[in-house]
DNA sequence: TTTT
DNA sequence: TTTT
């Protein structure tokens, strides 16, 4: 789907080592959380942190880049599409999840840029 | 939060008339679904439609624009931030929702441009 | 080059019928101006228009879409890369031009969306 | 002007120390070149570098961030608008320039995140 | 759960 | 040069 119709871009830190799944086809899937951190001072001058968490899914070549280079704590950029899907949890409750499907990964804070 | 760290842009059609809430402060909130439609032909040459649904929240001035001009079916553009939050549903089940908080609304397919 | 490193998105009106060039390879190139219009009222309450013009270049399939559907005045969306190049004009003066190379075209104000 | 109608985002390296101008109003303006580097291997397996240069202009608070933190070689992110203007050079030749007017600056490759 |  |  067109970038003009559905486009997400995020820059943040990987929360935990990505979970990598090897599909039967030989393709990989990476799933991980990405944190957007924001810092500000409140009226008392105390430093406050606000963190927004996102769920990212990457397939194929992007999953491989994630597996090799984007461990816990790494700063990366992600561009992709916003997607939602539903599933039943173990208690039979219908759950909805919204994920960012990554089309591009950019490694940051890496000597030499880390562009893909 | 910076557009570089968290940015979403969508162009699509409003699913149902937006739900408008008038806060005690006098501020409005609009909440609605936006559809990204994609059409393609399958191997049999049949036209297939695939729709991705997004939940949009708009505050203040943007909520007013939505209320006035963005009824069911209207084509609009939305730019904003990706945000997640949790709540307990009526059965006490913890639910997570991910929404796009609109910073900008652009009315499309409108004679007269409709730019804000 | 990655969308994260170089990304431009524009929505506006085509200024003149695009200039289409047929390359020897059979490929097409479309070149045209796109207008971003902005309206505001000055301190006297007069309606003022400010227009920003952009030069767009589209290749191949996108050039064909432009040729067929994006004549003078049409409202379209463009996503692509920012590129600069230099050439010598007829008086031997070195000139620099900056263009948006379109990766995607979205036809707007068209019944049925006009998505590519 | 709306992000939906005119939006540019770049991540790259500052080419030279930015040129800072102090306006009579006390406001600062920063002007600098930003490089998008791309590396690939040609058919002989040699590493080739392709660089796209962009001209960035930042005003006020963003100019101050640039002056303090974004010296030659620094990796930064820029989000803003695409703008063109014309002027006469010293030989009376009319020149056109296209610049990215930065609305946001994000310092990258910096211990401590560098978010604004 | 990251990062500062 | 578009559009409103």
From TrEMBL, chains A, B, C, D:
GO molecular function: single-stranded DNA binding
PROSITE patterns assigned: SSB
NCBIfam families assigned: ssb
One matching Pfam family: SSB
Highest taxon above the source species: Bacteria
Organism field: Flagellimonas chongwuensis
Keyword field contains Metal-binding: no
Protein name (database record): Single-stranded DNA-binding protein
Description of how the protein assembles with itself and partners: Homotetramer.
């Amino acid at each position: 789907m067109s970038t003009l119709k559905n486009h997400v871009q995020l820059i943040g830190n990987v929360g935990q080592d990505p979970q990598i799944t090897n599909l039967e086809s030989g393709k990989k899937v990476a799933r991980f959380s990405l944190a957007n951190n924001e810092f500000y001072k409140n009226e008392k001058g105390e430093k406050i942190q606000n963190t927004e968490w996102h769920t990212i899914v990457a397939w194929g070549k992007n999953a491989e880049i994630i597996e090799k280079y984007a461990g816990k704590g790494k700063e990366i950029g992600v561009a992709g599409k916003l997607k939602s899907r539903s599933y039943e949890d173990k208690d039979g409750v219908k759950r909805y999840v919204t994920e960012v499907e990554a089309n591009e990964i950019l490694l940051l804070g890496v000597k030499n840029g880390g562009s893909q």
